[in-house]
Sequence to fold (105 residues):
Amino acid sequence: MTDLHEASMGFDLEDLEPFLGEVAAKLEDFGPGDVQTIVEGVGSMAVDEEREWRFSVQREGRRVPLVVRVFLDDFDARDLYLSSDPALAGELQRLMSDFSDRLGK
Fold:
């Protein structure tokens, strides 16, 4: 089994869905329906609650795991953790940084 590496960042509630949409645009087998499932689940979370979703995505001709974990720090802040193979985790961390830069946060 592949060792999982993690990409993580804090998100305001209104930024979570657009970011996950960008992730979905880059991966096969992780689409708008998956994003909606996560966003709906996060929307019903209580403070200090954590939830996790597991997916298998296609990357460079092979299947790799994608684990999406969200921890609700406070009412408006979510910590998002995306775990996958090292190459994809690095790509996701860069995507997070780029997203944050575009938002000016």
Observations:
- The mean pLDDT is 92.
